[in-house]
Amino acid sequence: MLRTVKPKNARVKRALDARAPKEVEDDRTAIFVKGTHTGEVVNNVMKDLMALKRPCAISFSKKNEIRPFDTASSSTSISSLEFWSAKNDASLFVIGQTTKKRPNALTFVRMFDGRVLDMLEVGVEKSVNMNDLKTPKSTPGHKPLMHFASELFTTHPRFMQLKTMLLSFYNGEEISEICLSGLEHVISVSCAPTPPYLNTADADAAPSTSLPKVHIRTYTTRFLSSGTKVPRVELTPMGPSLDLTLWRHQEADPEMLKQAMKRPKLKKQDIESGLGKKRKNMEVDEMGDLRGRIHVGAQDLNKLQTRKMKGLKGDVDERESKRSKTE
């Protein structure tokens, strides 16, 4: 367990405040961990996935004996994940491991409040790396467009978990609008043809070995002139291209998931505009500017202090009458 750090100066206090929970969270940091045995396929896939996640990605160069799904070492592995999460302020993990029984395995782990929320293990059946495709690459840090092309991502619990896991990894910070020219790459996730038994009521009981494969493809975008306001979009393969098989999984605890999905009472637009709680006579216009209305009481202009000028001291008759009195 990490000790509780008390801020000794303003710099440490700002760093602790940055790690504190927020109503609108920052982009999530992911840690890529190598197991005791990793082959060339797993190393290249983790390298490409980390390139898509940058700059919010941390790579552990040393190998670690971590097996979160094994019963014998699951508690030790989970405690290691919780320690790394608290130390690096990270809530996502990718663990690469290659064994004889499960070759080229990747385990995706999500954390909440310093604890493991859920896990999903997949096997890499086929991969095409970024270096194998001599095409333009996207700029690190840009938000991708996520596209899921299958009804299983909305009906089957295993594929729904994979969808939310990938969205947590690459969705980045929440934004309300995006510039079209800032959309540099697209991540397309599709499935093999859905077998008939998955459309029945016993679809949840289907074995993992019979689930269709998942295909992940990454493209860069090109916007060409089309003669209209809407440009013509062309997609160029960028890599990585992965064919995955769903293996073991661990669902989230219902109570912990309920806390993780809890949203603040304030609306997101109110938080971003700085309003917080609703204030009287304050609003945000269409341009996003904060405008307020001020009510001022009645003013007595006779007591208003003005600039003293000879021309404003009265009429000529009044000045002559004053002269006669003095003489």
Automatic annotation (TrEMBL):
Compartment annotation: Nucleus, Nucleolus
BP term (GO), one: ribosomal large subunit assembly
InterPro entries: Brix, Rpf2
Pfam families, per the entry: Brix
Keyword line: Nucleus
Cited SMART domains: Brix
Region feature Disordered, mapped onto this chain: 260-327
Membrane-spanning residues: none
Recorded family membership: Belongs to the RPF2 family.
Protein name: Ribosome production factor 2 homolog
